[in-house]
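#structure-requests
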Amino acid sequence: MGKTKLGAITIGQSPRSDITPDISGILEPHLELVECGALDNFTYEEVVKKFAPIAGEVSFVSRMRDGRQVELSRSKLLPFIQDCIVKLEAMQCQTIVMFCTGEFPPFKHHVPLIEPCSLLQNIIRGIVGQGPIGILVPTADQIEGIKNRWSNFGIETVLVAASPYDSIEKIKQAVTRFKKDDIELIFLNCIGYSVAMKEIVRETTGCSVMLPRTTIARMMLEIYQ
C-alpha cells in the first residue's frame, strides 16, 4: 500500500524543522507530510519589505527557514497561501492542513482544508464552556484582536505574549501571570509553540495546556489511521 500524502502549509518558509519532529512522533509511517511555505520563494530582506503588516491589521508571526522570526500581513499572504494549496493538490495530497492558528477568509480547494482556528475554538468551548482560559500569543500587538475574536465566540480570556521563536525563559516569565487568575486551561495560540514549551507552561502554571500542532496531528491520524 502506498503512502497517504498530507499537505502542510506554513505562512513562513518550509521545511518547518521546528514543527515536524513533534508531529512525526504522532503520525504513522504510511502518512507522508508534504510541506509548502507561502514565503518559500523570497529572501528575508524581501519578506521584511514586501509582507510588513498594514497599519491597524492584526499581524501574523512565523519564521524563515533559517529560524529568523518575521511579522507578516495577513492580506498580503493570502495569494501565496492559495498558491500553496494549488501546488499541494497537484502533488496528490488528500488533505491539507494550515500550520497557523489565525483566521483566514475562504480559500479555493478541492480536497479537505483543515484550518486549526475554528476547530480548536470549538474543542476548547466544549471543554471549558465560557471559560476563562489563558491564551499565550507571540506578540503583544496581537492581544486585542485575538481577545475580541474569542469574546465574540463567547469565551472569556486572559492573554499574555511571548514568541515561540524567542527564549524559553521569556515564555516562562510571561505565563506566570496565569497563576493569578482562575484559569482552567491554557491555549498556546501559535503552531510555533513546541511540546517542550507546552511542558514548561504546564510546570510553571500547574494548568492543563492545549498545543495546536499535536492536537491537529492527532486529528489527522484519526482520519487517516
